[in-house]
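To the wet lab folks,

You asked to see what we're planning to order before we commit. Fair enough. Below is the target structure as C-alpha cells, and below that is the sequence we designed to fit it. If anything looks off to you, flag it before the synthesis order goes out.
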C-alpha cells in the first residue's frame, strides 16, 4: 500500500496514510466483532439459563448491542472523590490500546496483515500481556479497596499465567522454526491433518493448555477474579461507568479474538480450510482467494471465542487460591513437559511413525467430534421440565 501511495504523495505522507488506513480497518473490525460477540454472549447465556436472551431490539435482538452503546454514551462520566484523576481517566485507554496493538501483527490471510513481523508471535504475546497495566491503573487510581483488590488479583494472575502460555506457544514454534506467524500458517497448508494440533500428542495437549491459559489471560470466567462481583462488587470496574467502562469491555473482547486468532495460526492451520489441497489465492486469484482465507480465519477465531463464552456460562468461578494453584502446580509443569516432549519427538521420532501418529490423531478427533454431535442431536426436551434434556 505504501508503494502505491508513494506514486502520488511523498513517502512520509504515504506511510502515515497507510498507517491510518490499517488502524481504521483494525478498529472497525474490533468494533464490529465486539458488537456481534456481545449479542452472541447474551443469546448463549440465555439459552444455557433457559431464557431467550435479547429479542426486542431488531430482528433476533441483533440491535441490542447498539441500544447498549447508546445507553453508555448517555451515562454520566464522573471521577470518584479522592481518585487519581489522570490515571483514572487514562486506564481504559491503556487497556484498549494494548489489545488494539496486538492486531498489528495478526495476519488474517496471506499478506492481509497491518505489519508483517518476523517476531510476530513474540510481539503479540508481549503487547497482549500489557493490558494488565490498564487494569492495575484502574484499581490503583479508583480510591476504592474493592477496585484495588481486583487490580492486584489481575496483576498476579496475568504474570503467572503468561508463563505457561508462552511455553505452549513455543511448542509449535519449535516445529516451525520461526516466530513469523505468516510462515507458521503457510507451513500448515493442505489437508487438516497438516495442522500442528495433530502433529503429535504434545502439540495436541499444548493447544488445550494454551486455550485454557489464554482464557485466563482474558479475565474470562471461571478465571474472572479481577471482577468477581460476588466478592468485590465489580472489582477494578467498580467506579467506572459510561464510555470508559465500555473501553474495558472492548479490550476484553478484542483480546479474546486476538488469542483465538493466535491459537488458529499456531495450531489450527491459520486461514487454511484444511479441506483443500491447495491455496485458494493461487487457484482463484488474490482477491477472491484472500476473501475466502479471511472468512475462514475469522470463522475459526469466532468459534474459539464462542467456546470461551460457553465455558463462562457453564463453569463456576474458582477462588483466587485455586486459580493460582492451578497455574503453578499443574499448568506450569505440564507446559514444561510438553515443550521437552515436542523437542524429543522432533529429534528422535522416525518420520514414517510420526506421519502415522498425525493421521491417527486427526481421524480420531473427527470421529469423536461426529459422535458428540450425533449424541447431542438425539437429545430431546423432557415434558416434565421445560428446557431440560434427557436421552430418548
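Sequence we intend to order:
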Amino acid at each position: 500500500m505504501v508503494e502505491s501511495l508513494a506514486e502520488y504523495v511523498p513517502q512520509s505522507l504515504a506511510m502515515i496514510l497507510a498507517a491510518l488506513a490499517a488502524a481504521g480497518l483494525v478498529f472497525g473490525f474490533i468494533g464490529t466483532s465486539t458488537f456481534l460477540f456481545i449479542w452472541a454472549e447474551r443469546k448463549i447465556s440465555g439459552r444455557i439459563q433457559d431464557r431467550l436472551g435479547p429479542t426486542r431490539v431488531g430482528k433476533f435482538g441483533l440491535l441490542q448491542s447498539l441500544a447498549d452503546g447508546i445507553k453508555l454514551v448517555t451515562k454520566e462520566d464522573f471521577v470518584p472523590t479522592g481518585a487519581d484523576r489522570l490515571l483514572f481517566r487514562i486506564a481504559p485507554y491503556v487497556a484498549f490500546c494494548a489489545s488494539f496493538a496486538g492486531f498489528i501483527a495478526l495476519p488474517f490471510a496471506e499478506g492481509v496483515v497491518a505489519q508483517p513481523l518476523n517476531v510476530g508471535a513474540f510481539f503479540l504475546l508481549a503487547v497482549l500481556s500489557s493490558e494488565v497495566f490498564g487494569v492495575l491503573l484502574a484499581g490503583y487510581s479508583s480510591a476504592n479497596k474493592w477496585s484495588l483488590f481486583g487490580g492486584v488479583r489481575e496483576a498476579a494472575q496475568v504474570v503467572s499465567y503468561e508463563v505457561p502460555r508462552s511455553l505452549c506457544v513455543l511448542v509449535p514454534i519449535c516445529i516451525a522454526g520461526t516466530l513469523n506467524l505468516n510462515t507458521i500458517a503457510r507451513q500448515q497448508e493442505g489437508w487438516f491433518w497438516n495442522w500442528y494440533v495433530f502433529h503429535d500428542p504434545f502439540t495436541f495437549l499444548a493447544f488445550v493448555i494454551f486455550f485454557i491459559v489464554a482464557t485466563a489471560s482474558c479475565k474470562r470466567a471461571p478465571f474472572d477474579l479481577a471482577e468477581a462481583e460476588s466478592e468485590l462488587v465489580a472489582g477494578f470496574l467498580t467506579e467506572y461507568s459510561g464510555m470508559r467502562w465500555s473501553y474495558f469491555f472492548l479490550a476484553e473482547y478484542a483480546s479474546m479474538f486476538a488469542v483465538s486468532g493466535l491459537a488458529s495460526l499456531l495450531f489450527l492451520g491459520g486461514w487454511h480450510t484444511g479441506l483443500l489441497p491447495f491455496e485458494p489465492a493461487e487457484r482463484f486469484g488474490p482477491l477472491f482467494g484472500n476473501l475466502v482465507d479471511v472468512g475462514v480465519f475469522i470463522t475459526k477465531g469466532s468459534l474459539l471465542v464462542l467456546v470461551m463464552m460457553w465455558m463462562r456460562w457453564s463453569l463456576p468461578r474458582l477462588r483466587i487460591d485455586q486459580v493460582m494453584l492451578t497455574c503453578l502446580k499443574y499448568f506450569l509443569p505440564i507446559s514444561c513437559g510438553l515443550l521437552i516432549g515436542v523437542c524429543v519427538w522432533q529429534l528422535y521420532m522416525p518420520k514414517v511413525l510420526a506421519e502415522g501418529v498425525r493421521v491417527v490423531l486427526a481421524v480420531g478427533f473427527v470421529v469423536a467430534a461426529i459422535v458428540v454431535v450425533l449424541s447431542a442431536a438425539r437429545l430431546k426436551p423432557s415434558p416434565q421440565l421445560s428446557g431440560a434434556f434427557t436421552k430418548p
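Structural context that might help your review: The two ends are 59 Å apart (CA to CA). DSSP finds 15 helices and two strands in the chain.

Thanks,
Computational group
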